[in-house]
Amino acid sequence: MKSTIPELSSASVTLNGSFNPRIFQPQWFANQNLLSQAEAEKADIQIIHQQICQFQTEQFHLQVTPEQFTVAAKPNTTSELLRDLVLGVFFILEHTPVSAMGINRMMHFSIGSAEEWHRIGDSLAPKTFWSPVLSGRPGMESLEISAIPDGETKFRLNLKVQPSRVITHGVYFEVNNHHIAPDNGALTACMDILRDTWEEKQNAALEIAVHVIQQAGEQSTATQP
Questions:
Q1: Is the pTM of this model over 0.85?
Q2: What is the arrangement of strands in the sheet containing 98-110, beginning at the earlier edge strand?
């Protein structure tokens, strides 16, 4: 039976703008009470440079370049901790220029049998379409869909579906909520969206993934001879 609960789930937040990577090192987070001193001391630092800062803690991965800030929760870390970390960072750095924000959820689902797993791929990328020009059994490697809600000019939802690389007969979903910041009060607007819609967006991402799994399986089964 196909699971409606992901085996692995994580979230991330990305901000595009102008950043000073050297600021974002573990001790700065500890000094600002955004991480404990113990977490900062145990952090695995990959690089701290004027062009990039990259490190990870037990719960987060962080990477900052002059153009982009990204922090991701490790799988199955409580996503609200990630949200609160980002809100804390930019409450302190309140004058940071930003142009866009992505609120993301990544999920790996265990589908069960190889037959059910293939049915999902067959439904999303029908093999009858490709078999006249491709020999053997064509297989879906990646499907990307974008949607802009009616009346929206500063929001786009992007969905990626792929075979899971970490779960046998699993499916990977990546849901990106891309917000373009307004010209005025950009950071404040982004943080308001992050604070006020976080739970809604995380739940919506799960609903999308479950819908795709269920509908794709049902449609493919219905077309079986």
A1: yes
A2: 44-48, 53-56, 60-64, 68-73, 8-17, 98-110, 170-180, 155-163, 143-147
